[in-house]
Every structure is written in C-alpha cells, then in structure tokens.
C-alpha cells in the first residue's frame, strides 16, 4: 500500500448498532473511556484464564499432608487441623490425577508452566509484528477466543478421563501462543488513543487489570473446584471467550475507524474535527464517504520496529531488565503461591485448597494499590525511572 493511502477497517458492529439506535455519535472522551474499559476487561480475562493452574495444583498432586476439606474462605475456617497416619497416608497416595500424582508430579506441573511461558514469550515477539499489520480488534478477538478454547480443553481432560502428560503439555503450549496476542494488542490500542499527558496515572489505573484478572481467576477457579477440577479451567475459559466477543463488538482499535484523527495531531485539531463531525451528524448531512475523509492519518503509516531498533531506543534495555525481575517474582506467586500455602504447615495446621486460592489474592490486592500509587508518583515527580527503581528496591 502506498504511503498516504487509507484503509477503513470499519466500525465495530456493536458501536454501529448503538449509533443507529441513539442517532448520534459519542464524543472523543467517551470513546477513550470505552477503549480503557474494554481493554481492561480484555486483559483481565487473559490473566484470569492463566490462574487456574495454580489453584488446581494441590488437587492434581496432593501430598500426604494435603487433605481435602470443605471450609474455604470466606465461608468457613481458614486453617484445618488434621493428623494423617496409617490408612490416611495410603489413601491419599492414590488421590490426585495421573500423571501428576506420582513422585515426579510437582516436576511435571512445573514443566507445564515452563512450556506455557516459553511459548508465550516466543509468541509475544511474533504477535508484536502481526499486530502492526493486522486489524488489532480482530487479532485480539482471535487470540482471546483461541485462548479460551485451549484453556477449556485442558479442563476437559478431567471429563474425558485423560491421563497422558503430552495432552496437558500441548494444550498449555498452544494456549501460551494464543495468550501472547494480549499484551502487544492492548498496549497498541491504548497507544492509538492516548497521548503522554498523565500517562503514568492512566497506565497505573489501567494496568490494575493484571491483578484484577489474577483475583478474578482465583475466585472463579476456586468457586467451582468442588464440582471437579475441570470446571476450574472451563469457567475462566468461557470468561475470556465472552470478553473476546465484547472486544469484537465494541472495541474501536484505531481513532480513524470511528471518524477521529490519530493522536499525532494537536488536541485542537482533534476537537475541531470532532465538532465538525457532530455538526454534520445533527444536520443529517454526513454520509459514509464524508466520515471516512475525516481521518487525518492512516494505519498504513504505522511502521513496526525491529528488535535491534527497539533495543537502541534509550531506556528500553534497563526497563526490560526491570520488568524481567518484576515478572520473575510475579509469576512465581501467580503459579505457586496457592500450592505453597496449602502444602505448608502454619502452627501445625494447613489451609484448604480453596482457602489457599482465595487467600493468595491478597498479593494482587497489593498489586492494584502499588500500581496506581507508582503511576501517580511518576506523574507528580516527573521521574519515571526513579519511581520504577524505588519500587523495585522495595519489591
């Protein structure tokens, strides 16, 4: 496509329907709020679908000390006393789910996590390039529905009575590839709609989707655990598919798709163009061709940046290392905190599996508060690097 050419991907069908019903278009501010909300829901669903692994680990691989109890938070006792001897030990050795309930069960669960993250990291690089060339709304929708299907298939192993390790490993690997579509896409959409002003606070609030997703995934997975561990995957999988449908119907990935200029222009131009659009709409004088001409920039001019070029951008490498070590801790807690809590004696007592899952959400509650605080401070002090370094040191 030649530079300057314009390709209209089209309005999301849900927005077209609402516009037809109301007879008028939304303002630029309203569209930005919609974009923030929908991308927040989208990435919340991504993280919610990653959380079931950690919740069901103690069910798939129960240690002799891990006895199933039915007193989960917040409905019952936090700790449950139990003394396991003789027949109890022999009975619990036969519990769990093959192939994860053997002596190498914990190792196999770890291998599944590593396989997921390996495919996720490789997929992120590919997804970033694809997101620059494809319609972000459709790309994100495809990734979310694909993620939901393969997360759900992992849970179907319970109902299909599958005990082959390769099945669960492959489901997680494919799910990891689909999950890689999430972060590059939602960040690109936010970048299309927002400038730099107060971006720290905006990103701090918006980035709470990670912690909200972990909390949501924990509560969803734990709430249906009594009905069989397969439901702990199927319910979050259905949630991300539903969120993907919302993205398809209502997410305007590019401002020009709904008649606004790209944010590269001045704020005055944005307001002026939109006021003109609203005036034409009220008069009934706008047709599809006129609306298309409103766009002041084209997505064809958005060029992807190669890996080497990205590394040469000042600050990219230091912040990449900062994020690497932060994620190292975050994913350790995400995948293993509930398992650790349910398998570790505290005063001679153990948490139930569901209580451990619910209790682990406190880590993410702190993440919400900390992210918003860090964003506010980075805007207030205008020292993003210093703020990030300070939080990393405390972390």
UniProtKB/TrEMBL annotation:
Domain of life (superkingdom): Eukaryota
Alphabetical keyword list: Membrane, Sugar transport, Transmembrane, Transmembrane helix, Transport
Xref: Gene3D superfamilies: MFS general substrate transporter like domains
Biological process per Gene Ontology, one example term: phosphate ion homeostasis
Transmembrane segments: 30-48, 138-160, 166-194, 206-225, 231-251, 311-336, 356-377
Compartment list: Membrane
Membrane topology per record: Multi-pass membrane protein
Record's keyword annotation contains Transmembrane helix: yes
Pfam families, per database record: MFS_1
One cellular component (GO) term of this entry: membrane
Transport among keywords: yes
Domain Major facilitator superfamily (MFS) profile: from-to ranges: 38-395
Major localisation: membrane
Family of the protein in this entry: Belongs to the major facilitator superfamily. Phosphate:H(+) symporter (TC 2.A.1.9) family. Belongs to the major facilitator superfamily. Organophosphate:Pi antiporter (OPA) (TC 2.A.1.4) family.
Protein name according to UniProt: Major facilitator superfamily (MFS) profile domain-containing protein
